[in-house]
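tool_call: predict_structure(chain=1)
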Amino acid sequence: MTAQKSRTGVYPGTFDPVTKGHLHLIRRASRLVDHLVIGIADNPRKGPLFDIDERLEMVRADIANMHEKGCEIEVQPFSDLLVHFARKMDASCIFRGLRAVSDFEYEFQLTGMNARLDPELETVFLMAADKWQFVSASFVKEICSLGGDVDEFVTPQVAEKLRKKYKK
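tool_result:
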């Protein structure tokens, strides 16, 4: 009998900031592979509120506090093409979250391009749970910037970091 190869998946994103919706998808993806890499995109063109080190710290802290992980989860920054990062991580699949039809249209195009760049790399779509379909990092930042309560959408440590950013 031959040993089965370990399956690694990549869940990429900006995570600016990480939300409970992201964490829910991370937990679900971790049940489908043997090793999950959370790839935090370092793309200054997107104008993130938090720098790459802050985002890495927040995601790592939330993963450390996560219960019911299905596999080992690591968090890594990346600034190259997603397919190049996935190859470096020896990943066989990329996980992408879908909240709405508008997400699907963008993700469909991205998946097609990634398949041309690396036909061996599969994309796995995970639908957001009803509870998290409307939550986006952009909405969370806007709510917090206007003095709203974001505690329902992010972990306490992320909420505190958001409040500090917007007090400046």
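agent: Strands lie at 8-13, 35-41, 72-78, 93-98, 122-127. Proceeding to next step.
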